[in-house]
# Entry
Amino acid sequence: MARASKLKVYRTAAGFHDAYVAAPSQKAALAAWGSDHDLFARGIAELVTDPALAAEPLASPGVVIKRSRGTTAEQIAALPARAVSAKGTGEPGSDASDEDHYETRRSRAEAAPAPPKPKPRPKPKPKPSRGALDTVEEAREACEAEFRRALRDLAAREAALVRERRALERSRDLAMEKAQAAVDAEKRRYDDALADWKG
# Structure
């Protein structure tokens, strides 16, 4: 532990209290307060030179000692010049400049005119109806089916005609054979008769 002669007492605002700590350096004091910000650079922490205020912290080096500032008015008056605004918490590590900057940005945002509302999107077009297409497709299929039936009927008639032709050709062949046989027989009789006449 550091010797008392090397210790200094530092103070920062902690809500409605002042937080005192005896430490060898500002960095050690910040660590004792648990602050990640340089409260000294921001004017939120300071060195204590009053021996009466420094006595208790020097008796317990490294221990944070909190003391109430009294009434609300006294507490506000006791805050360092750059302490957090009335809306801030005043806890160690709070960032007054950040809050001031936030307030400035918020006041600017409130003063700025509201952005224009986006134009409503047009309603999507309805999906086209397939009714007419379905109708003409059905008509085409009916037409095709009708011609298929007509072609089947024609093919059946053609097959019947082929059969009829074959039957006719067979009948013709038989009749021609019979007629030729009669011609051949009659020719033989004529030839025989002619030969007898010539003697």
Summary: The CA atoms of residues 19 and 66 lie 4 Å apart.
